[in-house]
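Quick illustration, no need to memorize.
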Amino acid sequence: MMGASLPPPPPPPVRIRCDTSDELERAFPHTTAIIHRGGWTASEHAELNGWLRQFDDVRSGEFNGIRRFYFTCPEQAAKLREHALETGLHRLKANCMRGATREEVALEWERMAAEREEILAWGRLTGMTRQVVAHYRAERHVGTYSYTAHFNAAKIIERTHPTIADPRNYAGVMIEWAEREHRAWFWRCCRGLHHL
């Protein structure tokens, strides 16, 4: 049939701009966290990216060995949480390509929660929290990427407390705590888009 026109395509989804951690969490309040200390294979990356296409808009970020995915609906976050456990996306050890079981993941979250409290207590006792966070903020202020600023902040712990086995994790725990508990102060005077 000549002259018949097709309906116009639907408009693309509206991308929500999030310049701060507060804006990100308000727009995408439901989160799935995946322990990501080891790598994913190329096929795992491709499969996950394809799987995530079922959702209109998803944000993600990684800090201190935890990959977080931010969603607008709780069902979306729950769906990814289950998918990550079913497909073994959690990597509990550095340089490990083996996915962890549900039981291993549950135990690791418990261990990390207890370890976090120990690290924060140690940081307050030694005064390292203030030094690490100040160093991280100073580097971010001049435009240093989060990964590099985190790495350099961990070197302070490494130099002053060489017996600490994982200074990068210690620094990450302190930085995350400060960003969460003192967010407005934490990002004051920093440049660019900052997300942990």
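The beta strands are 30-35, 59-63, 66-71.
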